[in-house]
Amino acid sequence: MQEIEHHYDDLSVIYERPATLLDTRMHYCPGCGHGVAHRIVMEAVEELGIQETTVGVAPVGCSVFAYHYMNVDMQEAAHGRATAVATGIKRCRPDKYVFTYQGDGDLAAIGTGETIHTVNRGENILIVFINNAIYGMTGGQMAPTTLITQKTSTTPYGREASFMGNPLKITDLLAMLPGAFYVTRQAVNTPAHVRKAKKAILNGFQWQKLNKGTCFVEIVSNCPTNWGMKPVESNKWLEEYMLPFYPLGDMKVPSKEELENG
Amino acid sequence: MGELRLMKGNEALAEAAIRAGMDAYFGYPITPQSEVLEYLTREAYNRTQCTILQAESEIASINMIYGASGAGARVMTSSSSPGISLMQEGISYIAGAELPCLLVNINRGGPGLGTIQPSQGDYFQATKGGGHGDYHLIVLAPATVQEMADFVLDGWQLAEKYRNPVMILSDGALGQMMEKVELREQVDRATNVIPEWATIGKSKDRERNIITSLFIQPEEMERVNLRLQEKYKVIMDNEIRVQEQNTEDADFVIVAYGLSARIGRKVMEILRAEGMKIGLIRPITLWPYPYETIGKVAGRVKGFLSLEMNAGQMVEDVRLAVNGQCPVGHYGRMGGIIPGPDEVADVIKTMYAKIQ
To answer: What pLDDT is recorded for position A15?
Structure first.
């Protein structure tokens, strides 16, 4: 086949894969927010120039293979225990940047105890929490964050509070703890939201240096496959149903003094 | 000669851990081993600036161990039976990810919440798996306060040599009793070597390090298992520790470990004084188990008694080792009761008479 001639010399690259994200095909479904979330976490690592001093912890759930894509040293934790694993790492290597990347089942169901105590101790780590209101990897079962009336494979008639309990706003809960330094809820369903979410991730990494407590970034995300929707449709559903219950914004922000007197 | 002190088993173990250059300890209080955490919070940081953290649960403790070991630190946790049960998932992950660490079980009576009194009811759990999947811990069984201290550094060296978790399986009596102990010199933590596989940040000159026990492709998972089995074989070939006493001329042998071995020794003395030729085999490593030593002795004696503080767990390994060459009996007390030498001596006399 004849090679096609390109005349790109006059063009410059303005958007490319960060070097911290490996050039591998992801296992995520088309339209899933994990890809974007992975990207902004790794962009932050690249922009801050901390690839050599960052250690990540992957959860059990859809993002169990995060370490296949993130080009940093990583540990794969048992289900729910990522923040305990991160505590072990950070306590022994306090000069490293340590983050966990966890879904709602991992962080807010089976790992609730570890999550709360890690933040309460004010471990100087960044926790990235992906909330898509469902268990993805196991095939769409009810998550602690599943909305009332939302249908899943284990709430086939919709989640009912009197029977299955209420969706857990764990981020609000964590914001009440003195050990939390920065708590925010973001989303990745629109370009504007992605930019804000990335800023939050950047903050979470940078502020580890201050040793003043845990940075926690919730990212409200979608799960087109298990929600049974097309990607665009799922992002609309997220906007329409998830965000009213999980409103975006900061829940705990360090004061100027706290940031200055690092 | 090292420094001599009169110490509780639990405290001797904690002191030995500080001296062995421990980088971090994560634990949760439970009787009868809380002295370990208490001693370390009092002594350790001031002396070596190591990390001592009281976790919110044994589950958190073992996963902190996973993280810290994965970051190349020399780490330890300790607990007692119910707490060790809680850790089993994490221990399986640690074995799967091949992380060196030291686990201490000050065994108390079970099942369930059980009792806080000493027991050897966790033999199966420690030596046959405990958690899910095909893996082994290297299990060391101290019988004295001295060994409670000595096995700490020995344990870490084994763990680091083989990238495998090591368990010190002791019991509530050894943890609480006071004996003279000779302490080793302080290891300078600065000399601890961070292994090249540790996750401490990917430098430019190497690929990223990944600590995981997840191998989703069956072929890969089998390869990992085969490699683990090869490692276990090397450990079985090289690391068995066992003590024999009076087995040369014996025609009946007691097999016992830990606290039971002390009782077994007394029983042997009582019966030898009465003219009976009794020997003692004390497995020091419960895994790998000294099958060969017992098998050899089995060819020239009339019988064995496995003496344990449980319903009969190690006796299964004794029978495997003896392989039908002679009768094997078991005597054990449960629920935290320590058998007296005289009652054991009577059991042996009865068994001995039947064999004759």
So the answer is: 84
Q: How far apart are CA B75 and CA A238, in angstroms?
A: 44
- Cα radius of gyration rounded to whole Å, chain B: 21
Tokens coding A147: 């909305």
Q: Do B199 and A73 touch (CB under 8 A)?
A: yes
Q: Do B23 and A92 touch (CB under 8 A)?
A: yes
How confident is the model over B256-278, as a mean pLDDT?
A: 98
CATH superfamily, region B3-202+225-238: Thiamin diphosphate (ThDP)-binding fold, Pyr/PP domains (3.40.50.970)
Residue A114 C-alpha, separation from nearest chain B C-alpha, in angstroms: 6
pLDDT in tens, A28-48: 999 999 999 999 999 999 999
CA distance readout (Å), A218 to A90, A145, A207, A221, B259? 21, 12, 16, 9, 52
CATH code assigned at A148: 3.40.50.970
Is residue B209 within 8 angstroms of chain A, CB to CB? Answer: yes
Nearest to B95 by CA among B139, B142, B55: B139
A8 falls within a domain: no
Contact yes or no for B64 and A113 at CB 8 A: no
- For the entire predicted model, the pTM comes to 0.96
